[in-house]
Prior knowledge:
The chain is an alpha/beta fold. Helix content is 45%, strand content 15%.
Amino acid sequence: MLVLILFGPPGSGKGTQANTILQNYPNSIYISTGDILRENIKKNTELGKLAENYISKGLLVPDEVINSMIQNKFQEINNSNHSKNNKLLILDGYPRSINQLKFLLNLVPINCIKSVYLKLNLEEVIKRIVYRRICLKCNRIYHLIYNKPKNNETCDICNEKLHQRSDDKEEIVINRYNVYMNSTLPILQEFKENNISFLEIDGNQEVEKISQTILNYLKSTTF
């Protein structure tokens, strides 16, 4: 199985590109640590309570918590009757620190890992995230610049008032970006030192162009 790491700052489009990959490789497995943590926060689990303390401040959840979560996911995959049919595992939001990468390398051989690095500056990150709104009823995502709702900040489908995630506020976004630059970006050097293949892409390009570049990258890979 090939493990594809989607790497980049908040708002760089990792989730969007993951959806495109899943459409083209429907037997893939997708793991988003952010989605898992937000689901636990919504359900008010112990993991959710712990994660919320960090996420609400734009900080990284401790490595040991995330590593344990990833290890459990890998065990679920290995125990699944369908695991042999899944040729591609997409990781979104992991690893986010060098310690997390080292943990991953204990789970997956280096030659089975590739990465896509979506590069984006702080100004664009703020524009993409701060104006994002979500309908809590149907989970539809809007953007007050790029994908406006028809009626102010109300969902077109549910007519519910749209919600801004607490970690989407500007001061938190700036902190998240700084944490990314200090804790996550150094992983690129580890990729180089461990001979892990990664493709760098300008995240300011059109979504479709980025998608095609990634799909071409995957097509050139044997898995």
